């Protein structure tokens, strides 16, 4: 099936999200739509999927003009879409989610047997390994995404739109998704792949169309260099490496000793963790998602009740303190899931920028908020951190994922910090914004702030780390230097100790203040 957009424009009032977009997706092709956060990619796909009506322009399927009043029309035309934020009912089974909206009956009763059979057929064909009777909320994120793909394939989609599909995936899950995309192409289906991740785009795409500020600015092949693609995306040369001087660490500021966390089911999620971070250094925690990194960050912040051991910041014990007290001690926190733990979607950009500051005298007088000061603060932060938003009064949920992340970063770096704790700080963020966020993190380090980064992106770990702690099954397999080869880190992430993997331990850490002579 050939899909074509001709001069498609979408406006919201005076704001133009897409302008005169021309795009052709050929049968059996992986066509990437590449652009920075807020470029208009998702808006364009929502137009194509019938969620928005275009202000102007035409959509053609196999040369015939079509008009979609809703997603049902798009699906009937052979177009399926997997949204960045999954459209699944968590308490339903896989089969129930797949059947939802396209229910079949037998004798007046819901026929889930046919749906289960179709799920198994598609799962076996593409190697999905999805159980039709599994409850969705119990499935890993990568498997939930496969459920979304199965939903589209059950409905005979010939063009599959994947909107930022790797934003919430681990590196391994990402590689598996790219393999699935190749299989879809081999079966004659087309994939419209929306992304800003240059490695993935170059690895899997047949054609790359670049969109910037709502307009197509070029079309190229995957042979284009990452530097060329990055420049097309953001309209300027972008440094793909982090410019930073060698760290000059001072005294130990954060000291984690014997930290263990037990889950509600009694299973140990962290097991006797010992780590320390000095002033003026970045310690990056590496590991496959689900090996205790999330629990480490939550324990430091005070979100884990069943935690034992010690977490001391400049001699003050944080373990056992409520979250508000931990934040008051000068801890800046960037959560791994911004939509759940970092933002209130229905609140405005301005309100989200003071979520943990609204009691500050700058923004409140007694029980009353100083709305003018909150708005002034938002305007400054939006400009400083280049947050792409129609207004500081816009609900934050209307922003692209990368711009939502900038709001979180802007808020957490808007006050003096004694510790910056950031989990997946650039998840779902484009190359231009990654460059900016990395610069801000390094600037905090250079101001003497201890920085603890958790990231599943090895490129990010290598770019930022002064030392690297590798986690496996809730334990620290070793702390090594940033010059450790990837294959060695890979062995440690799979369960080898630093000694077994042949890694050289990181340099000795500076003493803590109480150990000074």
UniProtKB/TrEMBL annotation:
Name the InterPro entries on file: AAA+_ATPase, ABC_carbohydrate_import_ATPase, ABC_transporter-like_ATP-bd, ABC_transporter-like_CS, P-loop_NTPase
Q: Any idea where the ABC transporter domain is?
A: 3-238, 254-498
User: What residue intervals traverse the membrane?
Assistant: none
Primary location group: membrane
Q: Single GO cellular component annotation? A: plasma membrane
Task: Enumerate the subcellular locations listed in this protein's record, separating them with semicolons.
Answer: Cell membrane
Keyword 4Fe-4S recorded: no
Q: Identify the keywords attached in UniProt to this record, alphabetized.
A: ATP-binding, Cell membrane, Membrane, Nucleotide-binding, Repeat, Translocase, Transport
Q: Name one GO molecular function term.
A: ATP hydrolysis activity
Q: Is-annotated flag, keyword Membrane?
A: yes
Protein topology in the membrane: Peripheral membrane protein
Q: What is this protein called?
A: Heme ABC transporter ATP-binding protein
């Amino acid at each position: 099936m050939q899909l074509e957009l001709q001069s498609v424009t979408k406006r919201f009032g005076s704001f133009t999200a897409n302008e005169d977009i021309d795009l052709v997706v050929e049968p059996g092709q992986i066509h990437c739509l590449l652009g920075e956060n807020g470029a208009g990619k998702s808006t364009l796909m929502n137009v194509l999927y019938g969620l928005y009506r275009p202000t102007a322009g035409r959509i053609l399927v196999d040369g015939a003009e079509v008009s979609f009043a809703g997603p049902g029309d798009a699906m009937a035309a052979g177009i399926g879409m997997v949204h960045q934020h999954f459209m699944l009912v968590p308490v339903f089974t896989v089969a129930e989610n797949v059947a939802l909206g396209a229910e079949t009956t037998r004798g007046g009763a819901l026929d889930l047997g046919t749906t289960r059979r179709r799920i198994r057929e598609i799962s076996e064909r593409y190697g999905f390994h999805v159980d039709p009777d599994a409850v969705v909320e119990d499935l890993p994120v990568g498997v939930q995404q496969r459920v979304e793909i199965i939903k589209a394939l059950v409905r005979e989609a010939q063009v599959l739109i994947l909107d930022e599909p790797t934003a919430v995936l681990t590196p391994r899950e990402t590689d598996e998704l790219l393999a699935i995309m190749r299989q879809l192409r081999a079966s004659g289906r087309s994939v419209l792949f929306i992304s800003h991740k240059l490695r993935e785009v170059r690895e899997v795409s047949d054609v790359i169309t670049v969109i910037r500020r709502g307009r197509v600015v070029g079309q190229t092949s995957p042979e284009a260099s990452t530097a060329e693609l990055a420049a097309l995306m953001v309209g300027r040369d972008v440094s793909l490496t982090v410019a930073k001087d060698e760290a000059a660490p001072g005294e130990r500021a954060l000291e984690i000793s014997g930290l263990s966390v037990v889950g509600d089911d009694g299973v140990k999620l962290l097991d006797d963790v010992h780590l320390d971070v000095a002033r003026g250094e970045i310690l990056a925690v590496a590991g496959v998602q689900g090996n205790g990194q999330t629990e480490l960050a939550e324990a430091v912040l005070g979100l884990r009740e069943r935690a034992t051991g010690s977490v001391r910041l400049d001699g003050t014990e944080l373990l056992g303190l409520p979250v508000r007290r931990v934040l008051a001690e000068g801890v800046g926190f960037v959560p791994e899931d911004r939509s759940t733990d970092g933002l209130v979607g229905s609140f405005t950009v301005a309100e989200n920028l003071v979520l943990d500051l609204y009691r500050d005298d700058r923004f409140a007088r007694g029980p009353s908020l100083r709305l003018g000061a909150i708005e002034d603060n938002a305007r400054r932060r939006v400009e400083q951190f280049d947050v792409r938003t129609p207004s500081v009064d816009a609900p934050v949920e209307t922003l692209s994922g990368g711009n939502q992340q900038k709001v979180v970063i802007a808020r957490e770096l808007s006050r003096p910090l004694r510790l910056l704790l950031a989990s997946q700080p650039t998840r779902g963020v484009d190359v231009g914004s990654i460059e900016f966020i990395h610069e801000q993190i390094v600037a905090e380090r250079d101001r003497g702030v201890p920085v603890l980064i958790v990231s599943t992106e090895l490129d990010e770990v290598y770019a930022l780390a002064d030392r690297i702690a590798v986690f496996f099954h809730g334990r620290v397999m070793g702390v090594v230097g940033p010059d450790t080869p990837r294959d060695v880190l890979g062995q440690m992430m799979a369960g080898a100790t630093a000694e077994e993997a042949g890694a050289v331990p990181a340099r000795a850490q500076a003493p803590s203040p109480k150990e000074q002579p």
